[in-house]
Design a protein that fits this description.
Layout (H helix, E strand, L loop, with lengths): L2 H5 L3 H6 L5 H11 L3 H23 L17 H64 L11 E4 L9 E3 L6 E7 L9 E7 L4 E7 L6 E7 L6 E10 L5 E12 L5
Parallel strand pairs: 1-3, 2-8
Antiparallel strand pairs: 3-6, 4-5, 4-7, 7-8
């Protein structure tokens, strides 16, 4: 989906108010996972709708009987206008406070998620190294070089930096640690890795390794130095695949010895 095209539409507001057609809702929800701008627009529309509903609830069901007009200046329209302005200001202040609180809570959730990601990544690396030791003991011989398995974390970030991994010596794999969608909606996934030229170098069904991520181990010979893109799809009912994320990355040549 073209993100720029979505940003020019009113899909976020229609989605928040339940007016987005069903055929567009699935595509927009997939886009919403990785788009902070659209997420902010949805939250703003939801807050505005909630403010209007709150004002409607405060409006009296029966209008009071008109008061007898007294001689003197006509303050009624001015007071009504002032009350309406005060209500608008109150709603704006409430909306800003709610948005600030929501941003703080989102940042706290992201910090917690990052801490869990780092812990899971450390455990995954330790498991890979423990699993590699028996193979190293069997395959090692004169001139055999062994080392740590490189693990590249592919997270759902909105920055422009492309993560990179240094290729290991011959005979060792490269592990790709791929973050799952939040909130988690799928238990089965399909992973495709494509080169910068558009050639598929890997594709397979992958089960979650942890509650937060998938683990994909690839032969380093499949990833010569260059740029690649990992596409993550969730498998829905009936075998339908739902696009979840695109993770660009690059591989660097192994260091000279």
């Amino acid at each position: 989906m073209d993100s720029g095209r979505v940003h020019e539409t009113s899909w976020p507001e229609e989605y928040a108010t339940g007016r987005l057609p069903a055929e567009q809702r699935v595509d927009f929800e997939s886009h919403l996972i990785g788009c902070l701008e659209c997420l902010d627009r949805v939250e703003s529309a939801e807050r505005m709708q909630a403010g209007f509903q709150a004002l409607e609830r405060r409006r009296p069901a029966v209008a009071p009987s008109p008061a007898r007009r007294l001689a003197g200046p006509r303050w009624g329209p001015r007071l009504a206008w002032a009350a309406a302005a005060a209500a608008a200001v109150a709603v704006a202040v409430w909306s800003v406070a709610l948005h600030t609180r929501g941003v703080e809570q989102a940042l706290a959730r992201e910090r917690d998620a990052l801490a869990r990601t780092e812990a899971e990544l450390a455990r995954t690396r330790a498991q890979l190294e423990r699993a590699q030791k028996p193979a190293e003991a069997t395959a090692s011989g004169p001139g055999k070089t062994t080392g740590r398995i490189p693990v590249l974390a592919l997270l759902t970030t909105r920055g422009s930096d492309v993560p990179s991994v240094m290729l290991p010596p011959g005979g060792q794999p490269v592990a790709l640690w791929v973050e799952r969608e939040l909130p988690v909606r799928f238990e089965h996934y399909h992973v495709t890795v494509r080169s910068e030229q558009g050639a598929d170098v890997f594709h397979d069904d992958v089960a979650p390794a942890t509650r937060d991520a998938l683990l994909v181990a690839l032969d380093a010979s499949l990833l010569p130095p260059g740029r690649y893109t990992l596409s993550l799809e969730g498998e829905a009912r009936g075998g339908r695949r739902v696009p979840l994320a695109q993770h660009p990355f690059r591989t660097l040549p192994a260091p000279l010895r």
